C-alpha cells in the first residue's frame, strides 16, 4: 500500500496561507494570541500577509494619539507597503498622513474619519494615493474644497466618497457649496456619494448631479437647504437613488457599508509601554515584539498590554483567557 501523504502541521503552512487565515481574527487576537503559538505564526504576524487590510478604526476610537501613531507605523511597516485597505479613526497629525502616503503602493480603500489633516498636506501627498477607489474623510474639519479637488484630480479611479459631518459641528458653519463644486469638477466617476449634514444648497447638489454622470447613490440626509423635485429627478436622473434630506433613521447603515473593511467590534483596549516597565499584573497579558525578529523593518520594541478586566467595568466580563 502506498504511503499516505502526511498532512503538514499548522506551523508548517506557508506564510501567505497563515496570513489569510489570521486575517479572519480580531486585531487583539492577532497581536496577543497568535504570536504565542509558535515561531512560524509569530513570523507570519510580523510579515506582510497579515496586513493586507489594516483596520484599527474601532480600537483607535479609544486610543491616545501617540498610541495610534505607534500602532499605525508598526502595522504599515509590517505590511511592507502591500496594504490595500486602511481604516483608522482620528488620525492625529499631518505627518502620519504623509507616512501613509509614502507607503501606499497598493492602497485602494482609505477610511480616515475625524482626522487631523490640512488642505496643503493633502495637496502634497494626494498623488501618492492615486490607486484609491474608496475614500472616507467624514468629520475632517480642517480640510475643504482644496483637499477634495486634490483627491479628485489625483485619484482618477475614485468611485466612492464619504464626506459626512456631525450636525452639531456644522451648525455655525457657512455654505459649503464650494465642496460640492470641487466634487462635481474633479470626481466624474463617482458612483456612491455620502454628504449627510454638509451645508449644501440645491445649486451645489445640481452641480454634482451634472458633473458625476455615473452616480448611483447620493446621501444628502440633513442637508436642509436642498430641494429636489421628484419629477425632475425621474426625468433627468432616474438612475440615481437619493437618500434625504429628511432623516428617516439616524442609525441607518450606509448604503455601501460593504465597501468598508472588516471590523472586530472589540471593546478591549491595548496600552503601549516601553520594555523598561516590567511590572506584572493579574489582569494583564503582555506580548513583547523583539527587534531581532523585525530588524529589516526596524520596528521599535513594543509591548502590547491587553486588559481583560479591572481597567473599566465596560471592558470586563468578556471571558478572554490570560496568557503566561
Could you provide a short overview of the structure?
It contains eleven helices and eleven strands. It has helices at 15-22, 27-32, 39-45, 57-60, 65-79, 94-102, 119-125, 145-154, 177-186, 202-211, 230-236, and strands at residues 53-55, 85-87, 109-111, 134-136, 160-162, 192-194, 217-219, 241-243, 270-273, 284-289, 302-307. Strand 6, helix 10 (202-211) and strand 7 form a beta-alpha-beta unit.
What does this structure look like?
The chain has helices at residues 15-22, 27-32, 39-45, 57-60, 65-79, 94-102, 119-125, 145-154, 177-186, 202-211, 230-236, and strands at 53-55, 85-87, 109-111, 134-136, 160-162, 192-194, 217-219, 241-243, 270-273, 284-289, 302-307. The chain folds into two domains: 53-259, Leucine-rich repeat, LRR (right-handed beta-alpha superhelix), CATH 3.80.10.10; 270-315, no CATH class. The termini are far apart. The strands form two sheets. It has an eight-stranded parallel sheet, with no helix packed on it. Strands 9-11-10 form a three-stranded antiparallel sheet. The protein has 324 residues and is an alpha/beta fold. Helices cover 29% and strands 12% of the residues. It contains eleven helices and eleven strands.
Amino acid at each position: 500500500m502506498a504511503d499516505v501523504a502526511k498532512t503538514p502541521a499548522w506551523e508548517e503552512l506557508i506564510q501567505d496561507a497563515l496570513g489569510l487565515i489570521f486575517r479572519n481574527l480580531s486585531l487583539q487576537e492577532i497581536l496577543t494570541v497568535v504570536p504565542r503559538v509558535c515561531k512560524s505564526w509569530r513570523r507570519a504576524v510580523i510579515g506582510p500577509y497579515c496586513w493586507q487590510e489594516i483596520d484599527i478604526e474601532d480600537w483607535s476610537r479609544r486610543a491616545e494619539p501617540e498610541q495610534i501613531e505607534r500602532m499605525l507605523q508598526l502595522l504599515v511597516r509590517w505590511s511592507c507597503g502591500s496594504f490595500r485597505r486602511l481604516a483608522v479613526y482620528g488620525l492625529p497629525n499631518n505627518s502620519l498622513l504623509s507616512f501613509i502616503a509614502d507607503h501606499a503602493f497598493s492602497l485602494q480603500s482609505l477610511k480616515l474619519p475625524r482626522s487631523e489633516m490640512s488642505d496643503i498636506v493633502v495637496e502634497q501627498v494626494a498623488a501618492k494615493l492615486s490607486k484609491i477607489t474608496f475614500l472616507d474623510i467624514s468629520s475632517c474639519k480642517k480640510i475643504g474644497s482644496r483637499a477634495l479637488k486634490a483627491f479628485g484630480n489625483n485619484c482618477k479611479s475614485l468611485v466612492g466618497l464619504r464626506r459626512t459631518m456631525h450636525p452639531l459641528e456644522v451648525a455655525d458653519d457657512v455654505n459649503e457649496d464650494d465642496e460640492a463644486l470641487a466634487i462635481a469638477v474633479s470626481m466624474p466617476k463617482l458612483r456612491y456619494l455620502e454628504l449627510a449634514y454638509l451645508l449644501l444648497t440645491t445649486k451645489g447638489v445640481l452641480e454634482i448631479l451634472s458633473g458625476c454622470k455615473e452616480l448611483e447613490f447620493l446621501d444628502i440626509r440633513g442637508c436642509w437647504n436642498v430641494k429636489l423635485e421628484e419629477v425632475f429627478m425621474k426625468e433627468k436622473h432616474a438612475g440615481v437613488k437619493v437618500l434625504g434630506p429628511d432623516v428617516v433613521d439616524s442609525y441607518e447603515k450606509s448604503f455601501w457599508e460593504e465597501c468598508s473593511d472588516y471590523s472586530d467590534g472589540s471593546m478591549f483596549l491595548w496600552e503601549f509601554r516601553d520594555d523598561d516597565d516590567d511590572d506584572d499584573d493579574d489582569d494583564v497579558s503582555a506580548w513583547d515584539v523583539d527587534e531581532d525578529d523585525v530588524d529589516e523593518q526596524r520596528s521599535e520594541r513594543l509591548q502590547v498590554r491587553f486588559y481583560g478586566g479591572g481597567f473599566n467595568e465596560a471592558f470586563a466580563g468578556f471571558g478572554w483567557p490570560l496568557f503566561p
